[in-house]
């Protein structure tokens, strides 16, 4: 044997490491970007970062393929051919900005609502919203309406917080973790890290999901529920817990509105809380038997009180859910889960919450002034995301899941679900919507908010919608994130009105982000006489996405390593239950193209339009660029986009702008944390120490203690209107559905997408290794998952004699697609599904015309209508929040045998001017020989 | 043909927890990213934006469906890379000595200067763990990040394979499997870790931890406090509030 070769065990790793924030999804992990010879050589997770603690997902570690993708746009573009033809000319930034100003300035001076400004995967909504407010258009929102607003709104209206990334299980203490229908990017790495911690401790994980992939694959038990029935299952679990008395009565009495008295007298006040002379709800004290203030010290609220014939919320709740309608035997068939399994799950929940209960030895004082020697631990926790949310009953299902956590006493309890600052935050601490457009003036407040009653709806004096997306109308009264998915369809229908300019950022509305995509493409090119029905479209994106071809003016954005950003407490920060956190991005690379960060461009436009807040009194730019805004903008005196290193550098939360702030962030790994004191770590909504800490940090200006809303008075006010009470009345065609959907107690009703003749549920889920459309241009990620199949359950596969290589025709009331199929046994028998983010339009994303993503990849979107059948163009969305009901979709499946191409196909998109470059063949050390190593032998049906 | 070392001082390798791996592919691209700029030639990609993109990956994750006799079907996510076998057929088959097993730590490596790209090692490996680089014409495989684990230029806590460092669920463990007291050996002992395809007599160093048993726990349903149908809601209320 020859001697072993000598190898270099300590090669130089890189010339320099720059720490910034990932942008390959909404997770926003800290990354170490290694540079060699001025180029990015390697990207890894930042160990010190609170979100990812050093780990990184498949997307993050492939960022190097993202920043070198040939699909990067390189210069501003102006459309020169017909819209959709892809014919553009390259123009200068000055020309581009002046063109935009030429379109926007007259609108602001005459009819600001003629601008609709909507952003997609925007992580700067506190800036974009503020800009739209200054412009004065009511038509602004980000993409939450087609993402997961039900999760946000269902949570805020119930517990003053939400799942999403706004809280997390107490990973260290929980003894049972239950996941409902999780989408795997909210939030991605923290949940993986958490599941890893549970697995290491041997803690049981249960998944309730029609599809057993990903987190469901490692769950210790799996309930393959039928889509859209999660709410019914949850209420059945509550039924079982109530029946057995396994509910946390003390928690309900102290920390929820369970002891409030509900007005039982028929009339316009029925179902609202009884109020005292100060207009405050009150409780009955168990000792005195008399009314007492809800927030009074030493008051012992009586859950069983009856006062002047009015009963408590607790009694209404218990009586409702004890009904035989919610018995496991009554719901089993509908949910696709045997009754004994439902009873078994209820028993597991009760055992974890009550038999494994513990006292966390941390003294604390509640907002009433009562001192407690310890904190009651309830070690059962939950997480849920789009799977339960993207249904037309998703808002109430999210409410039901929070109610389940509440009756177990686990929200904010040690071992349970913990909120992250700035949450908890009650509805009352959020703004209401602002929507009155006045020529030449800003809006009087933020666009988006949380309505309390019909009086807050965004209706004009004649009762018509004020907003183009009809947010905050009777169609979707609590649409806290707007309805971006309705903007194009409404504008083309002129319902409620036409617009002039559609301004989009990072939103692929001509492809995967729209329902009914084929028709949306027609809408974007629809003409009225010589002009387009939507006369002008401005679009900003970093890449040659499908949407680019449909814009008239392209403002090319940078990649995520070439830009400034702030991940702000004013928006969606990176907090942990034990610390508020925010972070930045900064240009670790200089762009090699004529591109600009969109936020800087937006501020430039603001200056050219003279928007308030963006210009000084003498008309000069107030901010040099976005970086300057991040440091110097103040939303309230002393409170700006970043909390860290304020004043002279040692003030946190509140303090004067510090010119060195960004440098200090960069020194600190591009993030900052403010730690929650131990006494304030749990029971936050009611914990005086937490409230004082939050005020000191600037999260709000006065303590905001509140009770969880088992009974929702805002919902009841809308239900009263639907019953005919009050001046503001819904149209008759919406009355019946509002009466059901606006139930003040969580309720289940069948999803609205059900149609006779379409017996199969059709779902999508996002792979953990792809982010929306972006993955397709990533040379590494597309090798991992370059095709998607429609996965069929065994029953359908066998009944129709499907074989490998087959295609199926999938039909809905809206359309049909012909797509490749694969068999999957670990699947609900009435459900088919596919990965989203794979299918591409030919010619887009700098892929070759025969790329598998475009030839065999497909979208389900063509099957999904944006409106429901019937009167009034009612959105195919949750009737409470306007959340796009993607997962209501029902279809019919028919085998068509082998095919070579998915349908529908569309004309190949022309290639816009772009950067080129990208991943070529590696430097050849030797001439390649005609021998194949093992390429991927993954013909085993990789999922 | 090439000889294996008579004995190795240590057996460095991976322990992969199949009960925890969610199939997220993080290890796949962290490996690709590190090794694209690490030991040997880059991991080239061909037709990167075309109809049939293919490139070298030293670590891949596959998802398999399992349909047990009892209970519902399941998915097992299975990361696959070189197992650094004690009795490595890829080494003994190598005609040039390019493939070798290090006596110091048991890592199986390819000396690319000596590799003629004949591909015999890939055919000999029963695990499909080697991939030919089509641009460079040399065989690529997992190096256990030999350029990380001893690297003085990295912080000590980072001296581990890139796949282990990045794994979000902590399903990948790295250590010395010849030391019965090492954390990885204890994991293998506690969780019944197993070698892949022992019948091939390759004696892999890497171990897999099997998925834990899944399904319902043995426990009775909850006992109702009262028969609500018989007592009415008032009877239930009295009983439940009597508990306070």
UniProtKB/TrEMBL annotation, chain A:
Residues 903-943 are annotated as: Disordered. It is found in: Cell envelope. InterPro entries: Asp_de-COase-like_dom_sf, Mopterin_OxRdtase, Mopterin_OxRdtase_4Fe-4S_dom. GO terms for molecular function: 4 iron, 4 sulfur cluster binding; metal ion binding; oxidoreductase activity. Pfam families: Molybdop_Fe4S4, Molybdopterin. One of its GO terms (cellular component) is cell envelope. Residues 15-71 form the 4Fe-4S Mo/W bis-MGD-type domain. It comes from the Bacteria. Keywords: 4Fe-4S, Iron, Iron-sulfur, Metal-binding, Oxidoreductase. Its cofactor is [4Fe-4S] cluster. Belongs to the prokaryotic molybdopterin-containing oxidoreductase family. PANTHER family: DMSO REDUCTASE CHAIN A (PTHR43598:SF5), TUNGSTEN-CONTAINING FORMYLMETHANOFURAN DEHYDROGENASE 2 SUBUNIT B (PTHR43598). This is Formate dehydrogenase. The lineage of its organism: Bacteria, Pseudomonadati, Pseudomonadota, Alphaproteobacteria, Rhodobacterales.
From TrEMBL, chain B:
One of its GO terms (molecular function) is metal ion binding. Keywords: 4Fe-4S, Iron, Iron-sulfur, Metal-binding. The keyword 4Fe-4S applies. Pfam families: Fer4_11 (PF13247), Fer4_2 (PF12797). InterPro entries: 4Fe4S_Fe-S-bd (IPR017896), 4Fe4S_Fe_S_CS (IPR017900), ET_IronSulfur_Cluster-Binding (IPR050954). Residues 12-31, 72-104, 106-135 form the 4Fe-4S ferredoxin-type domain. This is (Fe-S)-binding protein. It comes from Fuscovulum blasticum DSM 2131.
